[in-house]
Amino acid sequence: MNRPLPDISSLRPRGGKRSSKRDLILNVFMRQEGHLSADDLYDLVRREDAGIGRATVYRTLQWMVGAGVARKVDFGEGRSRFEPSFRHPRHFHFVCNTCHRSSEFLSSDIEALIDEIALAREFAMTQAVVQVFGECEQCRTGRPVPVLDHGITERVFARDAMRIAIETERSGLEFYTRAASLTRDPQGKATFERLAKEEKEHLGTLERRYAELLAEDPDLEARPTFLFFKGPANGLFAEGAAELRRGGVTDLQALLIGIRCERGSHKFFKRYGERFEDSEGKQIFLEFAAEERMHLDMLIREYREQRERLGTKRRRRAAAGRSVQ
Amino acid sequence: MNRPLPDISSLRPRGGKRSSKRDLILNVFMRQEGHLSADDLYDLVRREDAGIGRATVYRTLQWMVGAGVARKVDFGEGRSRFEPSFRHPRHFHFVCNTCHRSSEFLSSDIEALIDEIALAREFAMTQAVVQVFGECEQCRTGRPVPVLDHGITERVFARDAMRIAIETERSGLEFYTRAASLTRDPQGKATFERLAKEEKEHLGTLERRYAELLAEDPDLEARPTFLFFKGPANGLFAEGAAELRRGGVTDLQALLIGIRCERGSHKFFKRYGERFEDSEGKQIFLEFAAEERMHLDMLIREYREQRERLGTKRRRRAAAGRSVQ
DNA sequence: CTAGGTGCAAATAATTTGCAGAGGC
DNA sequence: GCCTCTGCAAATTATTTGCACCTAG
Q: CA B173, CA B261: separation in Å to the nearest integer?
């Protein structure tokens, strides 16, 4: 797994000078996976160049945090830890009070709420930290908990991305199938049928890819969830499908529901797709976002045309009514 | 404002001895409003008893954290701060990188999500920390921002509690009025009408109290939100009312929707009511929870009776059908 | 009487700073 | 040549510990 590093030269803060020492420290730091303390980093750096002082490491770390390359995290151990900030721009931590190990998770829903609240308070957020303290499964029960450490986070992230994508496709498929069967307008019906067909195809591709991913790591399916997102289950298409199921929806309304759903899912996938470094998960998200974007555009076009047609009909009818009176 | 202190003797951890020094430190600590550093507390304590050593303050602080009386919070200043944990069991912070001041908020929605995720990960959470770093309105724009510091948090909390209660009552009123007009079964109709009447009365009381609260502090209405909760706007009755508005709902379904709504709002109000120390806000929440509980019971009773009646009817009809054949 | 609490001073641990010298621009 | 970085050692800061003594149960 040869991870591409970000362009270091572009990450230099104002007035910083090039320096081989700094570059070395930055380089060693970037190659690490976990949360390093200043001293951990010092030890690692000294292994490659014994002539570097502790103060330089501290100073470089400060500089990296200022430049936005590193993030300072505090697990209440009495010292700070640092992690590269480009990998997962906003992730959260479980911190075990007993074994002091930490485990990461992402929650799109929590992020969205924090954004909303910060906006309401007119606070210019640069970073959000969520730490859940307590006792981990392992410490509480004894032993056998499938790990979710830094080495495999990426794969688990891809798995979760894929699960979310699949669940969303399923909802979408159900939604468009039902919408097609309920729509009387022939052009609208054709649009929904086309979308249903696309969802079905994409669903097949995703399921194949999901199976491939599982084949790479037999324990993958059992590993704990990393990315939490309630969209597929509670919102997006599921909600739209429920609305259709209740019935009493016009063709135009069905289109609007579809637009709302596609917009929601496009937004979600784009957000995560853009935020992550190159990885299987990122790619899945980006592909997905593009597809949803296409659907969205199609629905909007269709909606405009339908409204236009209906408007014409209504105007004609109104004109006819006036002429009769 | 003479705040009642919690029962200190009940907060003693296993094996702890009574000691006048400890009691003094605990007492001084409990009287404070903000986030104290160990040294701040040391200074305050020495003002009342100059013969207390720094180490004792540190040790007592540790003991208090262990006993759950105090909570350690870290704003990344290189030292820990402590706050009484009984006041707001789980609150979150905005931390300004420029002026280093912090401002609190509560979000029932974020709490619920964290609970859910911790459950999914089988993590025994004891505490959750949410910190939003960035730049505050004051530092960014210049000056005039209505404060929300520790002195008035309580009043703002009461205001927000009241706003949420009022919004929920409004939704409830709308829901029950519509449900009554749609329900054909006379007993069911009477139940909904009775509930609508109660919501209306309670709404009046709440609005009067809200006006009284505003009269105490002319700036109160303009102060930033402290307690964020999307329930009243997005969920609870609003959703039920929308469901009714879409129509096609049977009497029995209307009762079920009502039960779901009351259960949701009862849960929310109980949760906050129980969590807070004595205050206007707590009282509002508890009253509200009790009222919702009553409504909930009434709806459940009504639901059981209706189902019974329908079942009887259906059985009778079925029996009639069989006898004809 | 004894386990645990307390003050003082010294120890520890993480991080910062002063200063003389080295190196990039 | 100037300005910034760097290493070293010393300083600073928050917090903990050793130890002799004290006090509640």
A: 12
Partner residue opposite B120 with nearest CB, options A97, A225, A248: A225
The dihedral formed by the CA atoms of B91, B97, B100 and B103, expressed in degrees to the nearest 10: -30
Of B124, B131, B134, the CB nearest to A140: B124
Q: What is each CA distance from A241 to A7, A172, A249, A283, in whole angstroms?
A: 45, 8, 11, 27
Nearest-Cα distance to chain B for A105, in Å, is 9
Q: Which of A79, A130, A163, A227 to mutate to test the interface with B (most CBs of B within 10 A)?
A: A130
Give the whole-angstrom CA distance, residue A134 versus residue A77.
14
Q: Residue A147: list chain B partners with CB under 8 A.
A: none
pLDDT of B10 strictly over 70: no
**A47 interface with B at CB cutoff 8 Å:** no
Instruction: For B101-130, write each residue's pLDDT tens digit.
Output: 788 899 989 998 999 999 999 999 988 889
CB-count exposure of residue B325 (10 Å: 0-12, 13-18, 19+)? exposed
Chain C: nucleotides below 7 Å from protein CB are 3-9, 13-18, 23-25
- Separation in Å, CA A313 to CA A310, A320, A321, B285, B297: 5, 10, 12, 54, 52
State the nucleotide closest to B53 in CA–C1' terms. C7
Of A100 and B61, the one with more pLDDT: B61
Cβ(B61)–Cβ(B36) below 8 Å: no
B239 CB neighbours in chain A (<8 A) are none
User: What average pLDDT does chain B have?
Assistant: 82
Consecutive sets of 10 residues in chain A, 325 residues long: mean pLDDT of each?
44 57 91 89 94 94 86 85 76 82 88 94 89 86 70 82 88 88 85 90 91 90 90 65 71 83 83 71 84 91 87 72 58
Answer whether A134 sits within 8 Å of B122, measured CB to CB: no
Give the pLDDT confidence score for residue A27 in this predicted structure: 92
Q: How far apart are CA A239 and CA A230, in angstroms?
A: 12
Q: In A8-152, which ranges are continuous DSSP H helix? A: 20-31, 38-48, 54-67, 108-120, 137-141
Question: Closest by alpha carbon to A31, among A67, A61, A4, A58?
Answer: A4
Q: What's B94's DSSP letter? A: E
- Distance, Å, A55 CA → D11 C1': 13
**What is the predicted pLDDT for the residue at B246?**
67
Q: Is B113 in CB contact (< 8 Å) with chain A?
A: yes
Q: Rounded to a whole number, what is the distance in Å from the CA of B141 to chain A's nearest CA?
A: 10
Can you give the pLDDT at residue B1? 40
Q: Using pLDDT thresholds of 50, 70 and 90, give the confidence band for residue B151.
A: low
Provide the pairing of β-strand A92-96 with A124-135.
Answer: parallel
Question: Does residue A110 sit at the B interface (CB-CB below 8 Å)?
Answer: yes
What is the set of domains in chain A, with CATH numbers? Answer: 8-86 (1.10.10.10), 152-320 (1.20.1260.10)
Structure tokens at B104: 């609190």
Instruction: Tell me if B224 and A126 make a contact (CB, 8 A cut-off).
Output: no
- pTM, to two decimals: 0.81
Nucleotide D17's nearest residue (CA vs C1') is B55
In this complex, the residue of A94, A121, A248 whose CB is nearest that of residue B94 is A121
- For residue B97, the model assigns a pLDDT of 75
Q: Please give the structure tokens belonging to residue A248.
A: 């009493």
Q: What torsion, rounded to 10 degrees, do the Cα atoms B44, B47, B49, B50 define?
A: 110
